[in-house]
Amino acid sequence: IFVLTRLKSEDEPTRSLSGLILKNNVKAHYQSFPQPVAEFIKQECLNNIGDASSLIRATIGILITTIASKGELQMWPELLPQLCNLLNSEDYNTCEGRRGAFGALQKICEDSSELLDSDALNRPLNVMIPKFLQFFKHCSPKIRSHAIACVNQFIMDRAQALMENIDTFIEHLFALAVDEDPEVRKNVCRALVMLLEVRIDRLIPHMHSIIQYMLQRTQDSDENVALEACEFWLTLAEQPICKEVLTSHLVQLIPILVNGMKYSEIDIILLKGDVEEDEAIPDSEQDIKPRFHKSRTVTLQHEEERPQDPDDTEDEDDDDTLSDWNLRKCSAAALDVLANVFREELLPHLLPLLKELLFHPEWVIKESGILVLGAIAEGCMQGMVPYLPELIPHLIQCLSDKKALVRSIACWTLSRYAHWVVSQPPDMYLKPLMTELLKRILDSNKRVQEAACSAFATLEEEACTELVPYLSFILDTLVFAFGKYQHKNLLILYDAIGTLADSVGHHLNQPEYIQKLMPPLIQKWNELKDEDKDLFPLLECLSSVATALQSGFLPYCEPVYQRCVTLVQKTLAQAMMYNQHPEQYEAPDKDFMIVALDLLSGLAEGLGCHVEQLVARSNIMTLLFQCMQDTMPEVRQSSFALLGDLTKACFVHVKPCIAEFMPILGTNLNPEFISVCNNATWAIGEICMQMGAEMQPYVQMVLNNLVEIINRPNTPKTLLENTAITIGRLGFVCPQEVAPMLQQFIRPWCTSLRNIRDNEEKDSAFRGICVMIGVNPGGVVQVWGGHPRASVGSWGPSLTPVAN
């Protein structure tokens, strides 16, 4: 602190560094500072917040806020009054002090907004907010900017002191609308965007003027201001009044958003847009985003619907490596959400622009047109259909453009129209699109490889078995990419292969295909160490492949199975050591265990009864008993999925454990953890079908929870469906125990299973209901008052005989 505040002879960077070292010490050890030392540091900070150097002021500001964040706001009663007093002083030196004080106050407002609005500190905001508002008119732009930024911290929480001054605040914002300072304009835009979300009632009378203002600011010469203003359209699109207030402005807004979607010169430099071939350059580690595995969730298939994970529907971003949010991305996102609000009404404003952009000789403009086309795909699909027979071939042509950034955006946009492509005769668009995308998967540019792989995965999900005739060609390309790809794209390639397996299923189980696909996958499998996180996507991929290949996976299953068991065992052992001696051992990364459990599920599902010998020779049931009791929900979720799959595949090994497993399953019927509860429910249903009447001792452990879940408002559909199936199955094997509760669940039970496709699970559940109605017909008559047969008979023609 002495070097920072008193040693003025030292250069500023050294003084600042000493302050930052002190800040780190405060962060780590402040509670153990002797009281006089802590007091001295706090006093020195307040005495020197007005240092002549902006670097030192900023450092002291950081130090003050770090101390404040250590719970010291309550213990430092003079801090806020002194900082607020500094704001009042007039002489030049404390004008620097005023800026320092404002900088510190802004950071405190950011870090402690809730505390400042609480009784714990006697609501200092009642004084602070009016004071900040006074400084909106200050002659220094830096201070005006700080003042708005401070108040902005309290908009989203609707701080009482701000709500009481809301009209003054809005009036002051309007007065600053055309401020010459970009930082001030940016903070004004940010305030208006937040007010749109929390106090739209106060903005509605001025909405026309605000929209006009935001149209100007979205074109601001300062990109940071333009980006902040562009957020306004994203937020407005979520408001019910959007259509009413924005329709007349679309003619101005759409060209502005489209213009914002062009790459800026700095974007092109950052993206190395002039580098066309980079496939031989290894990836640096920071290129590779951390991957998080999503645990397995058991779902049922609906009528007229392909299986799809609800979490897998978001699109990959079009220019991922520019991961910072920028004007291009914000403009594209705004156009996307507005297309979902206005639908076809947007097209008269867009189509004339699109025609010009898509065929423009300058690549940057053409590229932005392709992005526009992708952004409106979801919202304007119906209106775009007449133009797609001309546009899709043009986009397929763009896949071989000489500019890599054009090729990559064309991949993304085509993936957004994949659903339409697949709905047409395959030779018209699917075949040419697939052929070109496969060429792009082998592109010499890494960005294009990545975009093509992601687009191809989307196409696979849409086309499913339509791809079967081309499997040989597809596998040749994907396997060739194994030898070509650098680290990052290899991870995306695993995803494309896994999605292919999910999409074509058992059609992959041909000796010719297995011979192409398995050797490179097993080679990678052998190269990777147990601690390597690249195992995650590879294990996910193998899980899909094992499920698809079924018996075709048998030659590879033993080493894969053993390694998964080892990964689970190692992780459990590490967790145990960490729990006993946290100071000596690191906490394990449980994702390794979760991915391994999910691959074991894939093996059990794919290999069926063939998995029995592997289970017999391992201690997986003991490990599963531990995993089912893990503190991490995702571990339990994957454990119950595996338990259900092993129950179906080799119940002989599960049965001896049922007495231990059932109480754990019962306690996990807690809908707070939706996916855990869902998988536990499903596993119970599978166990019922194997146990038969022997399930009787366990019915009471689970029945009440299941009935409670099915009657719960706002329960997700998947959980309701699995719960209904399991209740039906429990009733099928133990009708005397379950039938007395019939009237408590029959109505939601029927609603839940209305749209489920006929299958083994549905069949057993309906048989269960029929048996229960036989035992307790009164339970249904009380609910419907008429003969129950009409209701049961309406549950699907295939089950009418059961009802009869």
TrEMBL record:
Residues 280-321 are annotated as: Disordered. Residues 310-321 have a biased composition (Acidic residues). GO terms for molecular function: small GTPase binding. One of its GO terms (biological process) is protein import into nucleus. Coiled coil: none annotated. Residues 8-50 form the Importin N-terminal domain. This is Transportin 2. Gene3D superfamilies: Leucine-rich Repeat Variant (1.25.10.10). Keywords: Acetylation, Cytoplasm, Protein transport, Repeat, Transport. PANTHER family: IMPORTIN BETA. Residues 433-574, 618-720 form the Importin subunit beta-1/Transportin-1-like TPR repeats domain. GO terms for cellular component: cytoplasm; nucleus. It comes from Buteo japonicus. The keyword Transport applies.
